[in-house]
Amino acid sequence: MSLATVKENVSMAKNQSNAVISTSTVNGIVFDTKDLNLWYGETHALKEINLTIHEKEVTAIIGPSGCGKSTYLKTLNRMVELVPSVRTTGVITYKGKSILDKAFKVEDLRTHVGMVFQKPNPFPKSIYDNIAYGPRIHGIRNKKILDEIVEKSLRGAYIWDEVKDRLKENAYGLSGGQQQRLCIARTLAIEPDVILMDEPTSALDPKSTLKIEDLVQELKRNYSIIIVTHNMQQAARISDRTAFFLDGEVIEFNDTDTIFTNPYDKRTEDYISGRFG
Ligand SMILES: Nc1ncnc2c1ncn2[C@@H]1O[C@H](COP(=O)(O)OP(=O)(O)OP(=O)(O)O)[C@@H](O)[C@H]1O
């Protein structure tokens, strides 16, 4: 049984219990955020956020340090709930279903929404086991199927040729750039729809950064990608739409060309031209 079949069965079971994750988007929108506010204790970190994330596009989130970029990203897979003092108001829908509802199981959400972090964080396991980890959790034990998933995921993250002869070696033996592509492959192995990337290249050298940027361009054929970046050139190079955050608010959200060539808000212009941040 493939991972896709396992997920389909889970989805069908959910169907019967009324908490469905649909496979199709509503008007090509994967995530729709309406009037989202978030507080960490007394800190009002997100203020009236309204944003739509479109299918099979790259959406960049830019803005100065502390403006709420990572917080927003982490609301989309509900990782932010790990902070005990967090409180939210407003609505986020994923393919039409409200994900902040308690009825929406966070484990289901995370099989559809993968995440790649700033620092590559492979498990202290072999390259093979890093990729097979998620599918095994989903109950896949068949060696042939696992082999196929491992190869497909590593190919998908453009690292197969570099590691195919050393799958049994510990992932810590890879370079930083290779580790980050391995982590992307690990995300692909759970067959998500959406990949969240929180400054995925900030710990990498320019060559590895370009490889990840090329990879993102390839991945958007099959996935919707949301990337937080401090690197303005990167946002301009690889994204279709860009949201500019400032002090917890979305100041401007538009197609990337417009944001970088003809922003309507002076604060966006000042930020992208390096006057602050
Ligand atoms: N776990 C937390 N507990 C309390 N406050 C937090 C927590 N995480 C973030 N904050 C606060 O929320 C605000 C937004 O932080 P966030 O990390 O989302 O910003 P950011 O734009 O991603 O910053 P950076 O670019 O520096 O990573 C900041 O004021 C920050 O101090």
Automatic annotation (TrEMBL):
Listed transmembrane segments: none
GO MF terms, alphabetically ordered: ATP binding; ATP hydrolysis activity; phosphate transmembrane transporter activity
Coiled-coil ranges per UniProt: none
Single Gene Ontology BP annotation: phosphate ion transmembrane transport
InterPro entries reported for this sequence: AAA+_ATPase (IPR003593), ABC_transporter-like_ATP-bd (IPR003439), ABC_transporter-like_CS (IPR017871), P-loop_NTPase (IPR027417), PstB-like (IPR005670)
Domain ABC transporter: 31-272
Any single Pfam family the record assigns to this protein: ABC_tran
Keyword field contains Transport: yes
GO cellular component annotations of the record: membrane
Listed CDD domains: ABC_PstB_phosphate_transporter
Keywords, in A-Z order: ATP-binding, Nucleotide-binding, Transport
Designated name of the protein: Phosphate import ATP-binding protein PstB
Gene label: pstB
